[in-house]
Amino acid sequence: MKSKVVYTEETDFMEDAAEEILEGFEDFSLQKNSLAIVFAEDIVDYPELYRYLSSEWDFPVIGCTALGMIMGGRRGFESSGITVMVMTGDECRFAAGITESLTPENHKEYIRECYQKLSNEIDGDEKIVIAYGNCVTENNLVSGDDLLRATDEASGNKPIFGGLASDNLNFQKMRVFYNDRAVENGEVMALIGGDVKPLYRHINSVKRMPSGVTHRITKSERNIVYELDGEPIVDVLTRDNFNVTKGDVLRDYLMNPFIITIDEPDGSRIEAARNLSFVDKEKNCGVFLGFMPEGAVLEFGYADRDYVKSTLKEIMFGMLDEVKKSDYPYHTVLCTSCASRYLVMSSQIDQVAQGYVPELPEGSGFLGFYSYGEFCPVSMAKSSQEYNMFHNFTYVLLAL
User: Fold this and answer.
1) Which of 176, 227, 334, 388 could bridge 188 with an S-S bond, Cβ 3.0-4.6 Å?
2) pLDDT tens-digit map of 40-74
3) How many angstroms separate the CA atoms of 195 and 51, rounded?
4) Are 389 and 145 spatial neighbours (Cβ–Cβ below 8 Å)?
């Protein structure tokens, strides 16, 4: 599989943006099957952009709005504009589609229908699922974990990579794209089959509080936590000097994510970061962006710039080393990075991207975005099983 990434800063006139994008791909030879991925600033009129791109392209296009875009080449990072990756190959196959608008009642059914249609198109040969989605409803009653689990169930546990669409931190303009459609409360996915060997990695970038205090979740429902250690979570947060004076606290907790440790029945232990998004003082509960099962252990964490930089270096150079040593010709790398990491790095965000771009194999396509939640499989420590996981404050990579 070959790939190339093109960027344009044009966001007002879609005919001009499309012209610049198409010109950027003029020297890129398409093979038998192709797929495009688009990450765009939330002000972009994506359906109009596709109208112009489709005059030249007859292959599927997927993507989503993005707080910031990560790419190879001299740019490294852009907070505005449009980035497009086209991947192409003779021996790989693509099928792409999008759900209708999702609700708590229909999301499982609609995701299953979309997945099954795409799987039939490539005869059940999918090796990896690329998926981008949106949380549904103001209080995230369909969380990123709900979307991931519904996709995991529909796929029969195929590896899923991607994340949640983002915007300019107002949490109101997120959309996912498929061809001429832009959907606010939906999920877009692409199935990739044929001669492809997905290589994926993830790394958590949250530091534990020095106090080492932990709490066990004793009452919860899906992504809603009612009690820690038998006490109302609101009381625990208040005692530990966390902000619970308002309902919508996602912005307040972006720099103070939590660490959850889940013990699986087979003895494996999963650790993930979780962001608190909403506090309901009437019901004495906290709503998180991912599942919070009873019995799991919760710790308070914090964001540290040097630690974020070190974890990025660890995962990037570890992945690149594996790619260089492999007999398989990897030429495409996708990444998803948490929006919280974006805020932590602030003025140094571009320096971070430039730190690894020179190490990419020559001719590689590299594209990613800053997300409100990340999808990537994790390996179970005591078995060979892999588990599709919804992450926060995490950096995930996929090589194809």
Assistant:
1) 176
2) 999 999 999 999 999 999 999 999 999 999 887 66
3) 31
4) no
Q: Which whole-number Å values give the CA distances from 207 to 215, 255, 344, in the listed order? A: 16, 11, 13
> pLDDT, tens digit, for every residue of 345-397?
766 666 665 555 556 666 778 899 999 989 999 876 555 678 898 888 888 99
Q: What is the mean pLDDT of residues 332-341?
A: 87
* Residue 218, CA distances (Å) to 176, 266, 272, 275, 288 in order: 36, 21, 18, 18, 15
Residue among 100, 98, 94, 97 nearest 128 (CA): 94
Return the DSSP state at 361.
P
Burial class for 197, CB neighbours closer than 10 Å (0-12, 13-18, 19+): middle
Q: What is the pLDDT of residues 279-313, one digit of tens each?
A: 888 899 998 888 899 999 999 888 777 888 788 88
Q: Which amino acid appears at position 379 of this protein?
A: S
The pairs formed by 312-318 with CB atoms below 8 angstroms and a separation of 24 or more are 312/203, 312/205, 312/352, 312/355, 312/356, 312/395, 313/355, 313/356, 314/203, 315/201, 315/202, 315/203, 315/395, 315/397, 316/355, 316/356, 316/359, 316/397, 317/356, 317/359, 318/201
Per the listing, tokens 């998803």 go with 336
User: Could you tell me which residues come within 8 angstroms of residue 248 by beta carbon, excluding any fewer than 6 positions away?
Assistant: 277, 278
Neighbours of 222 (CB within 10 A): 17
H/E/C letters for each residue in 156-191? CCCCEEEEECCCCCCCCCCCEEECCEEECCCEEEEE
